[in-house]
Amino acid sequence: MSTLTAHSSIGDWLDHPEGGAAIRAMLAQSGGGADSLTPVRALPLQQLVALSQGQMPQSVVDDLVRSVNGGEIPEDAEGGAWRERVTGGRFDGKTVIVTGAASGIGRATASRIVREGGRVVAVDISAEKLAELASELASVAPEGSVVPVAGDVTKQSDIDRIVAAAGERIDGLANIAGVNDDSSPIHETSDEIWDRVIGINLTGVFKLTRAVVPMMRAAGAGSIVNISSEAGIRGNASGNAYTASKHGVIGLTKSAAFMYATEGLRVNAVAPGGVATGIPFPANVSAFGSGRLKPFQDAIPSVATAEQLAASITFLLSDDGVNINGAILTSDGGWSVQ
Ligand SMILES: NC(=O)c1ccc[n+]([C@@H]2O[C@H](COP(=O)([O-])OP(=O)(O)OC[C@H]3O[C@@H](n4cnc5c(N)ncnc54)[C@H](O)[C@@H]3O)[C@@H](O)[C@H]2O)c1
């Protein structure tokens, strides 16, 4: 039986006699059971630290690894859960704007593009977290590869600053910034939630895309990837406002893909299923909406990592996506076919 490490999948841990016993004992302490881990069986054990949002410190994972390896943390071997494999030079010479770059899927996408040779205009409302990203990537990428722009994608003046920061050329745009709604059905949705969710998730995508397209048309080339959601293709994945915003992203994507199809532009969308990013929920979540959604959310076949979504997004953004235009790529482990 192979050595268990923090990089082994949760499924491998559960199926291992000692590893399974150690995890079940840990869960029992908090009154939980192994069934709760079924949707995340494919993720590396390490991911539990991020998934728990502060409840489970790194030391718990380290102790689990030690407990099945005679008190040592072994060298990580190849194999186990999926690992990101960087395609060297795939974004050489390209400038890509990535929104939501300070956290989760946007951060993983920005990081991958930079490590594959690209220059990223990294946009987020959080200046502090953007600075963390820039300093982390400074050690692995040439100077100037990350251009942080702290800004709000709903404000035209910030859109103008983002485009100005890109400079002479914009080869790609990944519209990833987004927020959750409160799971409310339409009769409970407040103007505040509606305006915020539609503003960031849909109007922000509209404004930045509108600003970038003229430069791409002039160059006769460009790749745009918009992040929709499972909630963009069905009615039972989220609340009313989020569902409307993500369906809107798909409409915007299809229209733009059609309009510029003969001009060298490609416009596609990725629809993630569950992703372990810790994207926050508003303070008050609707009991009515959550109750209606629960059976469908419980049926999610698997939860992905941000890096797995970045793999789908960078595929479409890069020249590997040649000939793909107007596609809505579900990146959800098969949730959408249920
Ligand atoms: N996590 C999931 O399960 C999931 C599933 C489906 C779709 N999505 C979508 O994926 C995208 C990324 O989500 P994530 O899970 O990485 O979330 P996240 O919260 O980790 O990252 C979103 C980022 O967007 C930024 N942001 C929010 N409002 C902004 C604004 N007005 N201007 C600029 N930046 C702003 C936030 O500061 C944050 O850094 C979102 O569009 C989300 O709707 C996520």
UniProtKB/TrEMBL annotation:
Gene3D superfamilies: NAD(P)-binding Rossmann-like Domain (3.40.50.720). This is NAD(P)-dependent dehydrogenase (Short-subunit alcohol dehydrogenase family). It holds the Pfam family adh_short. The keyword Zinc-finger does not apply. GO terms for molecular function: oxidoreductase activity. InterPro entries: NAD(P)-bd_dom_sf, Sc_DH/Rdtase_CS, SDR_DHRS6-like, SDR_fam. Keywords: Oxidoreductase. The lineage of its organism: Bacteria, Bacillati, Actinomycetota, Actinomycetes, Micrococcales. PROSITE patterns: ADH_SHORT. Belongs to the short-chain dehydrogenases/reductases (SDR) family. It comes from the Bacteria. It comes from Leucobacter komagatae.
